[in-house]
Design a protein that fits this description.
Elements lengths: L14 H11 L3 H36 L3 H29 L1 H20 L4 H15 L3 H11 L3 H33 L3 H4 L1 H15 L13 H24 L4 H23 L13 H31 L4 H7 L1 H21 L2 H18 L8 H27 L7 H30 L4 H8 L1 H20 L3 H14 L10 H5 L1
Helix pairs in contact: 2-3, 2-6, 2-7, 2-9, 2-12, 3-4, 3-5, 3-6, 3-10, 3-17, 4-5, 4-6, 4-9, 6-17, 7-13, 7-14, 7-16, 10-11, 10-17, 12-16, 12-17, 12-19, 14-16, 15-16, 15-19, 16-17, 17-19
Amino acid sequence: MTLSPSLPPRSGAGPEDRRTADDASRPDRRRRLLVLAICCLSLFIVGLDATVVNTALPAIQQDLHAPASGLQWIIDAYTLVLAALLMLSGSVADRIGRRRVFLTGLLVFVLGSLLCSVAPGLGWLIAFRAVQAVGGSMLNPVAMSIITNTFTDPRERAQAIGVWGGVVGLSMALGPLLGGFLVDTAGWPAIFLINVPIGLAAFALTVRYVPESRSPRPRRLDPVGQLLMVLLLGCGTAAIIEGPGNGWTSPLILTLAAVALAALVALPLWELRVREPLIDPRFFASVPFTGATVTAVCAFAALGGFLFLNALYLQNVRGYSAVEAGLWTLPMAVTMLVAAPVSGRIVGRRGPRLPLVCAGSALAASGLLLTRLAADSPPWLLISAYALFGLGFGLVNAPITNSAVSGMPRAQAGVAAAVASTSRQVGQSLGVAVLGTVVVEAVVGPMATGFAGASRTGWWILTGLGLAILVLGFVTTTARAVAGAAEVAARLDPAREGVPGGAAERLR
């Protein structure tokens, strides 16, 4: 049975009726592509910010007299606030309107960028990075939710997510190059000022072209779960970063670790009791969804550690300028740009297994090469390692996003997308905190002579992260895992039970 496009769905209408009504009300293809472009514009500035800052770290260190832990906080103040607020932003957007939250996020992000460019000291810069992150938390998951609700056809949605993944690769690939140019020509404040015109352009286009959307049954807020999330991420990361300077057995570090551990235990216990939790535990009954979450943590931990360590190595050890350091990352940028859209097409046609397996293999190979790093390593080693890393990271984003969103009800698209985005930020925070701390603590003597040898432990960690992604690529894409995901999708949205072409079909 079909309904006339002019009529609303009848009470009790079946799945086919609802799909017909959805198709009638959704924007035409040209408008959908325009909405995708606007959402990708917001992703571009957030992704660019994640990599452009790394290139500027040595200049910021010299100008603001920042210790190594201060450099870690410049990165992690941003990623931690993002990770802590993404879930809340997704829920609020589903409740009060995705377009409204998206516009607010753009304005706050632009304001935070302006403040970062005029920061008079290290503490101010870290605080303003947190302001930036408050705005950024309203962009990525909300934009993905807008895309998910705009592209309702599974294959078209997978292709749109592939474009989204390509923009991730583009922004992160251009970050080191653009950052190096800006730092050498205009100073490190320019890396923040570049966000302003792009953010304002995205705001104007959103007002004009992006329609408002809400969840028909928005979730309740979970303030206790939100507080536990903040305590877990903030205290845990602070303990890792500040441990070397304060002593691992100092009262401050022990207190931070105890609070983080208590929050880690309390969070799942609380979420199981709440009717509508911050993180719905039922999501994780889906093996592909859980695999996407863990893969995101591993991939972005590798990215965070890779960028942080390479920025210090290329400029403080090899003595390159910011522009030269950016140019050395060109092999990573090129392979990332090529791999990201290819990965999206493969996911849309064949599923996520092949890109995940290839991504894990390439990241592990890159880490293995870098375990041979020395102060005078030959160019072929750096070029090969950077190219392999770009290939692996370019391939991994599309399958992460597709597996996280596919199979989840569109009514909870903001929350599902926020889980994937949160996992990315948690991973990047951990990568900077763990690899940075492990390596910096191991440096003996001046940075120029002791850093390369000390960094090898970090590269072994990166190798392990790549192997973990490789294993997850096989385990989470089996027929049994796909079937289980379909069952979870049916429980989350009983109206879809028995609908052909459902979650299992999209994940296969």
